[in-house]
Amino acid sequence: MAAELEAKKKNWIEDTRSYLGDIRSEMKRVTWPNRDRVQSTTLVVIVSVFIFATYFKVVDTVIEKTVVNVETRLIGK
Prior knowledge:
The protein contains two helices and no strands. The longest helix is centred in the C-terminal third of the chain and has 41 residues.
């Protein structure tokens, strides 16, 4: 029983080392973007976020006004 646990422990350590070695190998093959590419895509993301935020704020305001208007007409206040 103890020998079996020791074998599993050793196997786990070897598997972890192999996995980390595979990660290192894969990371060396990654093509990383240059600084200009990162800056341009970051700008696109930031501008897109603000456009969508504005759009959703407008839609939310329209829906809110519509619901309040309908509620006011139904209740009669």
